[in-house]
């Protein structure tokens, strides 16, 4: 068996991957919290979609990719299939979207959280091992420990369930700040459990291995993810102003509709006219009571 290194460059890849996961989970929780506060369905869908991209794309997939920078095998080279790598990124966002929309739309419940947690957890584990399947080891074959594979799947399901539960209960900013590192620990722990399940057996392979080096994928991935993060930050910061403008526009429209249904000012009775009408009504009522009361009868006043 070839010797596998998970931290070739020290703990820097672990710290970097965990930090990015915290940022992605934090942005995702902020987006889902805003979705709960939004009444309009279109805005809620928009916030939930941003949350899925934040958690799935940044908190999970980018963390996985950065952690893979530290994965090397002694006396050989590791390459990656770009198509499978891109597929794993799409899987992360799509599967997290299923769980977040299942919980975020309609009335939340623990049944939805548990169902979404199982679906999302299986999807996240599938994303992870799809990314692992993208590895091409020169003169080596990747094998997996079944016990650690099952453990990583269980961790993924638990982490996804906790993450979805956080999306419906976390409201305050301190709680958001405390929940995101917990989510990142679970996600990062799942990744490294799956990574430690992998071992490489040396084999003789004739010809070259198809794929690209991980550092070659790093630059375009960093550009894409950086652009997405900037867009998410901009959307998170600018959306309150946009929602306020939309609410103000709705208020103005409702006031205009009320004004259209009201009679014109000339047709509205003045206060003096209303007092005269009220006085006349009371006088007529008193006269009717006097005619209906027999002479000499006591009428209480």
UniProtKB/TrEMBL annotation:
PROSITE patterns to which the protein is assigned, alphabetical: MHYT (PS50924)
Presence of keyword Membrane: yes
Family matches, as InterPro entries: MHYT_dom
A Pfam family annotated for this UniProt entry: MHYT
Domain called MHYT: residue spans: 9-201
Record keywords, A-Z: Membrane, Transmembrane, Transmembrane helix
Coiled coil: none
Top-level taxonomic group: Bacteria
Residue intervals passing through the bilayer: 6-33, 45-71, 83-106, 113-135, 147-168, 175-197, 217-237
One cellular component (GO) term of this entry: membrane
PANTHER family referenced in this protein's UniProt entry, alphabetically: DOMAIN SIGNALLING PROTEIN, PUTATIVE (AFU_ORTHOLOGUE AFUA_5G11310)-RELATED
Protein name per its UniProtKB record: Signal protein
Lineage start: Bacteria, Bacillati, Actinomycetota, Actinomycetes, Cryptosporangiales
């Amino acid at each position: 068996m070839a010797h596998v290194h998970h931290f070739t460059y020290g703990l820097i890849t672990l710290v970097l991957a965990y930090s990015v996961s915290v940022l992605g989970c934090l942005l995702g929780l902020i987006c889902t919290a805003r979705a709960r506060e939004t009444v309009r369905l279109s805005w809620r869908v928009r916030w939930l979609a941003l949350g899925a991209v934040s958690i799935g794309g940044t908190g999970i997939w980018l963390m996985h990719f950065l952690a893979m920078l530290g994965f090397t095998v002694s006396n050989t080279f590791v390459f990656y299939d770009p198509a499978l790598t891109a597929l794993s990124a799409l899987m992360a966002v799509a599967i997290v979207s299923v769980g977040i929309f299942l919980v975020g739309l309609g009335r939340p419940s623990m049944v939805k959280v548990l169902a979404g947690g199982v679906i999302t957890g299986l999807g996240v584990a599938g994303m992870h091992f799809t990314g692992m399947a993208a590895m091409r080891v020169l003169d080596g074959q990747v094998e997996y420990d079944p016990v650690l594979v099952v453990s990583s799947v269980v961790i993924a399901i638990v982490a996804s369930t906790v993450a979805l539960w956080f999306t419906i209960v976390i409201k305050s900013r301190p709680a958001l700040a405390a929940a995101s590192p917990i989510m990142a620990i679970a996600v990062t722990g799942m990744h490294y459990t799956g990574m430690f399940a992998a071992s490489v057996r040396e084999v003789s392979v004739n010809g070259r291995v198809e794929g690209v080096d991980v550092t070659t994928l790093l630059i375009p991935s960093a550009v894409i993810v950086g652009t997405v993060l900037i867009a998410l930050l901009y959307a998170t910061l600018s959306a309150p102003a946009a929602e306020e403008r939309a609410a103000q526009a709705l208020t103005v429209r409702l006031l205009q509709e009320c004004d259209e249904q009201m009679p014109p000012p000339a047709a509205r009775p003045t206060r003096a006219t209303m007092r005269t009408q009220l006085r006349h009504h009371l006088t007529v009522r008193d006269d009717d009571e006097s005619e209906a009361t027999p002479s000499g009868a006591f009428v209480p006043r």
